[in-house]
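Tutorial handout. Part one gives the primary structure; part two gives the three-dimensional structure as tokens.
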Amino acid sequence: MIHEHEDLLLASAAMDFGLSQEEADRLSQAIEDCPVCAERAAAYRRQLRLLSSLPEIEPSDALRRKVMAAALSGGRTPSRTPLILLAAALVIGSVMAVAVAAGGAFRERTTIVAEFPPNATPSAAVASDVAVASDAPPSVEPSQPVVGPGGAPAVAVDSIAEVVSSNLRIRSQPRTTTDSIKFEPFLAIGDRLFLIDGPVVASNHDWYQVAAWRPSDPSRSWPIGWVASADSADGSPWIAGASVECPKNPTVDVLAAMNRYEALACFGDRTIAF
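Part two.
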């Protein structure tokens, strides 16, 4: 604050009540100590001088009668002195100072919220196996359905799932509240998902963090986000575990030709020797 609390009360009182000489001097000193208030007060003084220089126009008899009737009715308040303009300048300047201070504090406390969630990295398992022809499985089969916390069949993290219902939405947060951004476009039947994390139970759904792609349209992409696994009303699944054809003895060229998420699902927990 630029002024003490008593000065603000004094400025407010000056608008409706007369001030003693001591109070008037204190108010004038407070205005001089406030650069913004002094500037405003000077502007009001200039306006007052301009108004005083205007030619006097004699009112008509009808206007005189209306003014006299209003005065006799008691509804008219006494004329304000020019000191009211100075008091108004003090109040306006103080309000401006508070607004500037509040705006600075707000900017300091405001943080930028990312539009997209950070890409979560699945925890790496301790790798001990070596991919050789004798022990490498030909494919990764979908995990057996297990009832998740939200009542829907669960799918395994670090595996591949497939969308089995149209118009499935990817969201930035595992919930349906307003802070969960809706990503476009909708997922379609046949789109594939690499499960990064989950399930998280919220809004009556089991949510999985996924990386999505469309095998029929490699140019289509989505940010990493969250999808609900099933209809909360009847338990109808919206995603299901999918199998992946994993090469028995992959080479660098074979791995490079594979979808990166399918390669991660096949060999993410193993050490490959070339």
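Part three, for discussion. Residues 139-267 form one domain. The chain has seven helices and nine strands.
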